[in-house]
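pinned: reference chain
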Amino acid sequence: MVLRTHDIVDSPLGPIALLAEDDRLCGLFFVAEHRHAPGEERWGDRVPDTPALTGAAEQLGDYFAGERTTFDVPLALHGTAFQRQVWDELRQVPYGTTVSYAELADSIGRPRAVRAVGAANGRNPVSIVVPCHRVIGTDGSLTGYGGGTPRKQALLTLEAAHRVPESS
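pinned: its structure tokens
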């Protein structure tokens, strides 16, 4: 039997719900206004000292402080094979950079699946950790983000401020 637990942590963008199944992070949602977030009745008991939750909270704190560019918490991602393929590819998008939905579709070998890639991106259950905020429209517009466009802009601004330029 899978044991689901949760905790709520503060962030500069508002409270974040962290959900874990056993010892793996399975959800990261802004408490207020996050599209596709599960209802609170599905979060499980609030158990702040679960290793997956404390690890995720620490790494998020480091990320928001500009001290972390990648996450290494164990994940339990539930979705279709296509969604998981998109989410795996999202993890390859470097900190402080963006890709378009078309570029993401092309990178998984499905250049005509731009809308499906957008839908999978929108269903990402662990935003920030799987950086769906780094995907933008082909014209550079900040289209869609489960936590809202202002949060997407804030995350991109945070990363731009702390990005270390590549040496040439």
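why pinned: The chain has five helices and six strands. The chain has two domains: 4-64, 81-162.
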